[in-house]
TrEMBL record:
Comp. bias (Gly residues): 216-227
Family label: Belongs to the isochorismatase family.
Sections of the chain in a coiled coil: none
GO molecular-function terms, A-Z: hydrolase activity
Domain Isochorismatase-like residue range list: 80-165
UniProt KW RNA-binding keyword: no
Region Disordered, residue ranges: 204-227
This protein's UniProt keywords: Hydrolase
SUPFAM superfamilies associated with the record: Isochorismatase-like hydrolases
Any one Pfam family match given in the protein's UniProt record, by short name: Isochorismatase
Name of this protein: Isochorismatase hydrolase
Length: 227
């Protein structure tokens, strides 16, 4: 059976464990932060898609990185849960999903690709209720070799792998939609930086060769949330 089409009213975004203590350790974390701060959450606002965020043992690993300014999502931030379970599908998250029977698609991004992201995919696919879309340029791990292996495993389990821009265009669906003008403006504003970051994220290049030299913002300065 073909997976359901991505449409905003039937979709949730899952932001997995982008935390302060991971910043020095995670491969290409600055690129992922830029992607999250300037792409996916902005799409959430434009398309009115709810977001569930988690942290893994925040007492030890810190809160969601402040470059991702979750409060700016307003009511679209459905929840921000701390957890010890590696999967995002805790009892609290499952209750949210159960209360929204219209949801049939999950867009997933975050870290680490081979641990919490992968186990979230396994949990969701095990329920056989959701099409799970993993953002290929929005996941990473401490070790570069883990990422393609994890992505391959997620695909084998039935997850749909796509880029942030491809998934966003699927959600917009039609250039005549009321949201397209704002979405198109976002894509144009972030085109070069997204291209630079995505190229590094998907090429396996070390982060110091590129991301530390200006991919964080058009002027090469610190990351700033655009949500």
């Amino acid at each position: 059976m073909a997976p359901p089409r991505l449409v905003p009213e039937n979709t949730l975004f899952f932001l997995c464990d982008i935390q302060t203590k991971f910043r020095p350790a995670i491969l290409r974390v600055l690129g992922i932060l830029y992607l999250l701060c300037n792409g996916i959450p902005c799409s959430s606002q434009i398309l009115s898609i709810g977001v569930i965020a988690t942290t893994q043992n925040a007492r030890a690993l810190g809160p969601v990185d402040p470059d991702i300014d979750l409060p700016l999502l307003g009511d679209l931030l459905i929840a921000n849960f701390d957890k010890t379970l590696f999967s995002m599908i805790t009892a609290d998250v499952k209750a949210i999903l159960d209360a929204r029977p219209n949801i049939n698609s999950i867009v997933l991004f975050g870290i680490e690709s081979h641990v919490c992201v992968l186990q979230t995919v396994l949990s969701l696919m095990g329920q056989q209720q959701y099409a799970v879309h993993v953002v290929a340029d929005g996941v990473s791990s401490c070790n570069a070799f883990e990422v393609p292996i994890a992505v391959q495993r997620m695909r084998q389990e039935g997850a749909i792998i796509g880029t942030s821009e491809s998934i966003a265009f699927q959600l917009v669906g039609d250039a005549s939609s009321p949201q397209f003008k704002a979405f198109s403006k976002l894509v144009k504003e972030d085109k070069e930086s997204t291209k630079q970051v995505g190229g590094v994220l998907l090429s396996g290049l070390p982060s110091h060769q590129n991301l530390s030299e200006g991919a964080g913002s058009p002027g090469g300065g610190p990351l700033k949330s655009a949500m």
